[in-house]
Automatic annotation (TrEMBL), chain A:
UniProt keyword annotations, A-Z: Cell inner membrane, Cell membrane, Membrane, Transmembrane, Transmembrane helix, Transport
InterPro entries according to UniProt: ABC_transp_permease
Protein name stated in the entry: Autoinducer 2 import system permease protein LsrD
GO molecular function: transmembrane transporter activity
Quaternary structure note: The complex is composed of two ATP-binding proteins (LsrA), two transmembrane proteins (LsrC and LsrD) and a solute-binding protein (LsrB).
Function comment: Part of the ABC transporter complex LsrABCD involved in autoinducer 2 (AI-2) import. Probably responsible for the translocation of the substrate across the membrane.
Source organism of this protein record: Roseibium album
Keyword set includes Iron-sulfur: no
Protein localization: Cell membrane
Xref: Pfam families: BPD_transp_2 (PF02653)
Major localization class: membrane
Automatic annotation (TrEMBL), chain B:
Cross-referenced InterPro entries: AAA+_ATPase, ABC_carbohydrate_import_ATPase, ABC_transporter-like_ATP-bd, P-loop_NTPase
Superkingdom classification of source: Bacteria
Protein's recorded name: Ribose import ATP-binding protein RbsA
PROSITE patterns: ABC_TRANSPORTER_2 (PS50893)
Pfam families hit by this protein: ABC_tran
A molecular function GO annotation: ATP binding
Automatic annotation (TrEMBL), chain C:
Gene Ontology cellular component terms for the protein in this record: plasma membrane
Main function: Part of the ABC transporter complex LsrABCD involved in autoinducer 2 (AI-2) import. Probably responsible for the translocation of the substrate across the membrane.
Pfam families recorded: BPD_transp_2
Record's protein name: Autoinducer 2 import system permease protein LsrD
Transmembrane segments: 12-30, 42-59, 71-104, 110-131, 152-175, 207-226, 238-255, 288-304
Length: 347, 501, 314
């Protein structure tokens, strides 16, 4: 009775496709952090100003690391939000609108309720998060209830969001100059500003949701096999709605950090978040087909994107090249993460 | 304990279950056998709640129950181990086991992985599988996944009061011999926990494992035999045993084919694991029928001929020319026509009208420098509408709106008008009513007379016998036997079934 | 009469109703001269939407059109001096290449078109920034008039711009309805598996569809650039949403296979009338995006063929 009928499957070769996909992004990140200082070193060498590789690098320095991390934090929040959606095999392209609306509403509320965190104006922060949640929920409703593919539903919602932000501001910029709020950027602990730690805390929260809650696991179930999950009694519609709502909250978080970083809320606050965050997610190794990847992948992906952006400046490449490089990066990442045997045709 | 009484199920045009009585006693293993289309899968779906019967009733311990969906059936202790595996591969084993029932391990919104892991280990112990419940399911072998599915179904034991009935649908189809052995021992051990319904096309396995065997034919239970009385021959006779109406299949019209010429040769062709080492030759005017159960490799052979699959070894030649490129395009260029089983997906393009569909594979013949000569297309369509008696108001009718039989004729016209010399027919009469079926038979004969070589996968064995010159029997991707089917000297159903299962 | 029966007629009914409503509220809307200038204004958008129709008709989408048009405004401005009218060829070639690459990445590398075209759009943006040196550029007035002045003339009161649009529409319509390519497009959009099983070279058809979308976007960019007498990496921003809206409200659903270029003509007119109505209702121009975003959602929801999504909507 106690005999074991089937032992574990024989270990496949060391370098399985899964394993490569899992670790490749991290390797790329490490490679990039070494290759940029190398170019820098090479450049200096040619100009006759030799410096110690890595040790005296401008790129490979704590100051530059802080710069990269500061630039990364808002995008990281947005990218984490969309990670949940992509895990389900859907996509959310509404982030630019949502970020703008949340930023603008936050700024208005913050200023009219006292203009400093030391007053009731702190309520503007939860308000912004709620607004994000509501926008995400509506986004999810349009997708799930009207049965519109998520990329189109969310793209349209993004346009609506940006338009709404414009309606609110009338094209004006709103300055948020409260020192306590701006301490997100200005106050540094161990060389890094507070917003980096806030982002880290949110990332841990996201990881917790992903790995320790039913909702988080259900994202994987939906992404791994929606029909099977449904057959097992999972309320897929509900999971999807919750996913979009959660994404909205993280977009709002991204908006808060973006405002904290620049001190301005405007319609354009959300600009560029769509492409950067999608790039970061897929470059980090979360498959566009769903079910594989997660928050840590996205962290690595965001860092890759920002290291490239920063490194290109440091080694003196023109800034216009960035968009093109990211564009190619997305295509390469999606191609590498696609198992061609499992897709028949794509439109 | 579990009982179906006089259960009926109708689909449009089909009486799928005819007054079926079916009973499972506590701790019993019940086998279910029947030909393709005998109603096995419909019966299974009624049992696990995917279909609702439209006559008769279902009783559990004497009380009548009605399941709206599989979940309700599950809550009454009826679980299904699917043939196509229903595990989500990117999740861990324990998550799969408790998918949809995670709530028992959640405290303050947090999943207690340790508790779930322990509970999963307990379930896995029931099926004697010693693996880490935290493993990702995709890392498991097929056999292990099968056991995990069984373990998943066995969680019902703790979840519900009362007895369990577990359906096993072709559970051995992906398993190696030793693994089958292990599974059977396990099922026998589990008899004290649950009753089983075992469906398989492998007759010997059903005979070995089952306490009683239900034999189905044409949607009805034709016999119930107990383990000790069961005999393969007798059961096979009951599964088929029908008089063939020679008139119906136009047998008198069958003429000998031209054995002097060869259209298509398969020489030791294998394709992945779907079929292995298959050889045959197709001659002008010959109708070859591939016979076997679902998954025996019949369809894969058709798709290989057409170019939709690329063989892994062996060689395919068309008119003695070795085929080097396998794609639908080269197949069409070589004069092959393909009538797929999924008529509405691969046959016609719904949303395009009759003439557009007919010229789809041969547009260049009706175009100058890419500009279509639409009036010629319409003339062609009108000709074929008349020739095949296609019932459509005009050539502008959307093919998606035609009846099944007429859609089939449009597909046929597409290939015939393009001059296809080799026709591949995959279940050409599926879902058609009797009149439309007879039309298709008539057309097959006509094509055969015109010197077209035909490879057919028929809907029923009678059809196969009635229509073909040659029958090739396949089993699990292996070639079994070749039958010559000259009129008057056709093999019997029993002869075929004997080699199929 | 069921909704499915009315559905194909919905776009022109919508157009008619909108025109009547706006006309009743503001009779000056029917002033021929004003109407003509409204229609003429919408020409670049129309041409872009015309191209987009091909991508959507096969069930894909092209999100790169706006960036591509941006790129072309820059190329046209920078190279006008060198190539003269020939710059039009350069523009068309650029559009074809970018579109064909999107198509290749989608069909051969299995990247969904919304991602591949989005990515290619950023590649185009990068190129536009490179060629423009990230500045707004202006065309030499004399050169512009001698090379492309003919675009903006009038013959018998009909603006040449409109003539160009109509010629392109006829061309696209001919391509769609009269050629083997157009027929293949329809087959791919309506039932790709059956198109493959009929031996069509589906990959080539799809790649060409994206290439055509690119060509039309390039032509739109060229006209826009000449019209504004300059080029800039952001000049055509705002066009993407309107182009998608024009295709979808015209009745070509996101799932492809039905509708077509004539529908897009109607769709573009609907967009035009909505804009005119907004002006009349004194809705700020900044609100366009929100209004059209909502119109877009409604249009998709009404037109999409859910039976083609096979149950799972992702």
């Amino acid at each position: 009775m106690t005999e074991v009928v089937a032992q574990t499957a024989p270990r496949a070769s060391f370098l399985t496709r899964d394993r490569i996909i899992k670790w490749a992004p991290l390797l790329v990140l490490v490679f990039l952090t070494l290759v940029f200082p190398f170019f820098e070193w090479l450049e200096d060498l040619q100009e006759g100003k030799q410096h110690l590789f890595l040790v005296d690098s401008r790129f490979f320095s704590i100051r530059n690391a802080a710069r990269i991390l500061i630039a990364s934090t808002p995008a990281l929040m947005v990218a984490i939000g969309v990670t949940f959606i992509i895990l389900m095999g859907s996509i959310d392209l509404s982030m630019e609108g949502t970020v703008s609306v949340c930023a603008v509403i936050f700024a208005f509320a913050f200023i009219s309720w006292g203009g400093t965190l030391a007053s009731w104006a702190w309520l503007a922060i939860p308000l912004a998060l709620v607004v994000g949640a509501v926008l995400g929920f509506i986004n999810g409703l349009v997708h799930v209830r009207l049965k519109i593919p998520s990329f189109m539903a969310s793209l349209a919602m993004g346009f609506v969001g940006t338009g709404f932000a414009l309606l609110l501001t009338g094209g004006d910029r709103i300055r948020v100059e409260d020192e306590i709020f701006r301490s997100l950027l200005t106050v540094r602990w161990f060389n890094f500003p507070i917003m980096v730690y806030v982002a880290l805390a949110m990332t841990l929260l996201a990881w917790f949701i992903q790995s320790r809650t039913t909702l988080g696991r259900n994202f994987y179930a939906v992404g791994g096999g929606e029909e099977l999950a449904h057959a097992s009694g999972l309320n897929v519609t509900r999971v999807r709605l919750m996913g979009f709502t959660l994404a909205g909250v993280f977009f709002a978080m991204g908006a808060l950090l973006a405002v904290g970083r620049i001190g301005i809320a405007e319609t354009a606050t959300g600009n560029n978040f769509m492409f950067i965050s999608i790039t970061a997610v897929v470059v980090g190794g979360t498959a566009l087909w769903g079910g594989i990847g997660g928050v840590w992948n996205t962290l690595v992906g965001v860092l890759i994107v920002n290291v490239i952006n920063n490194g290109m400046v440091v080694i003196g490449l023109p800034s216009y090249a960035q968009d093109g490089v990211l564009g190619l990066l997305v295509i390469i990442a999606v191609v590498l993460s696609t198992d061609r045997k499992s897709v028949s045709f794509v439109k | 304990m579990y009982e179906l009484r006089q259960v009926d199920k109708h689909f449009p045009g089909v009486h799928a279950l005819k007054g079926v009585d079916f009973k499972v006693k506590r701790g019993e293993i019940v086998g279910l056998v029947g030909e393709n289309g005998a109603g096995k899968s419909t019966l299974m779906k009624v049992i696990y709640g995917a279909y609702q019967p439209d006559g008769g009733n279902i009783a559990l311990d004497g009380t009548t129950v009605r399941f709206q969906n599989p979940r309700q059936a599950m809550e009454h202790g009826i679980g299904m181990v699917f043939q196509e595996q229903s595990l989500i591969l990117n999740l861990t084993v324990m998550e799969n086991i408790f998918l949809g029932y995670e709530q028992q391990f959640v405290k303050f919104g947090v999943i207690n992985w340790k508790a779930m892991s322990e509970a999963a280990r307990m379930q896995l112990a029931k099926v004697k599988l010693d693996i880490d419940p935290g493993m990702t399911t995709s890392e498991l072998s097929f056999a292990q996944r099968q056991l995990v599915e069984l373990a998943k179904v066995l969680t019902l034991e703790e979840r519900i009061d009362g007895d369990l009935v577990i359906l096993l649908d072709e559970p051995t189809s992906v398993l190696a011999k030793e693994e089958v052995e292990l599974l059977f021992n396990l099922v026998k051990d589990l008899k004290q926990r649950a009753s089983f319904i075992f469906v398989s096309h492998r007759m010997d396995e059903v005979l070995r494992l089952s306490d009683r065997i239900y034999v189905m034919k044409d949607g009805a239970v034709v016999d119930v035999v107990s383990h000790d009385e069961a005999e393969v021959d007798a059961i096979q006779h009951k599964m088929v045993g029908r008089e063939v109406d020679k008139e119906y299949y136009r047998e008198q019209k069958q003429r000998p084919y031209d054995a002097g010429k060869v259209l298509l040769t398969f020489d030791g062709v294998s394709c992945d694991k779907r079929f292995e080492d298959v050889s045959f030759a197709l001659h002008p005017g010959e109708v070859i029928c591939l016979v076997g159960t679902e998954g025996s490799g019949r369809e894969a052979i058709l798709r290989t001929i057409f170019g939709l699959e690329t063989p892994t070894s062996g060689s395919v030649a068309i008119r003695n020319q070795k085929v080097t490129r396998f794609s639908a395009r080269s197949g069409v260029d070589a004069g092959i026509g393909y009538i797929p089983r999924e008529r509405k997906v691969e046959g016609i393009v719904a949303g395009m009208n009759v003439y557009e569909n007919m010229t789809l594979s041969q547009m260049n013949k009706y175009a100058n420098a890419g500009v279509l000569r639409v009036s010629e297309e319409k003339t062609l369509a009108r000709n074929w509408i008349e020739r095949l008696g296609i019932k459509t108001p005009d050539v502008y009718k959307d093919c998606g709106g035609l009846s099944g039989g007429n859609q089939q004729k449009v597909v046929l016209a597409k290939w015939r008008s393009g001059g296809a010399e080799i026709m591949l027919l995959d279940h050409p009469t599926r879902g058609l009513d009797i009149g439309a079926k007879e039309d298709v038979y008539e057309m097959i004969r006509e094509m055969s007379h015109a010197g077209v070589g035909i490879v057919l996968v028929a809907d029923t064995l009678e059809e196969a016998i009635g229509l073909s010159h040659t029958i090739l029997v396949l089993k699990d991707g292996q070639f079994q036997k070749r039958f010559d089917c000259a009129p008057g000297a056709k093999p019997s159903l029993y002869d075929l079934v004997h080699h199929m299962i | 009469m069921s909704f499915e029966r009315i559905k194909p007629h919905l776009p022109w009914i919508t157009l008619l109703v909108l025109v009547l409503l706006v006309g009743i509220a503001n009779p000056s809307f029917f002033d021929p001269a004003g109407l003509l200038s409204l229609v003429t204004d919408v020409v670049p958008l129309f041409i872009m939407a015309l191209g987009m129709t091909f991508a959507i008709y096969i069930g894909g989408i092209d999100l790169s059109v706006q960036q591509l048009a941006n790129l072309v405004t820059v190329i046209a401005t920078v190279y006008l001096a060198k190539f003269g009218v020939g710059v039009a060829l350069v523009a068309v070639a650029a559009g074809f290449i970018v579109g064909a690459i999107s198509g290749f990445v989608t069909t051969r590398l299995y990247v969904p078109s919304f991602v591949s075209t989005l990515a290619m759009g950023f590649v185009a943006l990068s190129a536009a920034k490179y060629f423009s040196g990230q500045r707004a550029l202006y065309m030499d007035a004399e050169l512009r008039n001698s090379s492309f002045g003919w675009m903006f003339g009038n013959t018998a009161g009909v603006p040449h711009e409109l003539v160009i649009a109509i010629v392109l529409l006829v061309l696209a319509w001919f391509l769609q309805t009269r050629t083997t390519f157009g027929r293949s497009l329809k087959a791919v959009g309506s039932g790709e598996p059956a198109a493959i099983a009929s031996g069509l070279n589906v990959d080539r058809v799809k790649i060409l569809a994206f290439a055509i979308s690119g060509v039309f976007a390039a032509v739109a960019g060229l006209i826009f650039s000449v019209k504004l007498s300059g080029g800039d990496a952001n000049l055509a921003n705002g066009f993407l949403l309107l182009a998608i809206v024009a295709v979808l409200v015209g009745g070509t659903p996101l799932t492809g296979g039905v509708g077509g270029v004539l529908n897009t003509a109607i769709g573009t007119l609907i967009v035009m009338v909505i804009r005119a109505a907004m002006v009349y209702l004194e809705i700020d121009a900044t609100q366009q995006q929100m209004v059209f975003g909502i119109v877009l959602i409604a249009a998709i929801a009404l037109t999409i063929d859910r039976s083609k999504l096979r149950g799972v909507v992702k």
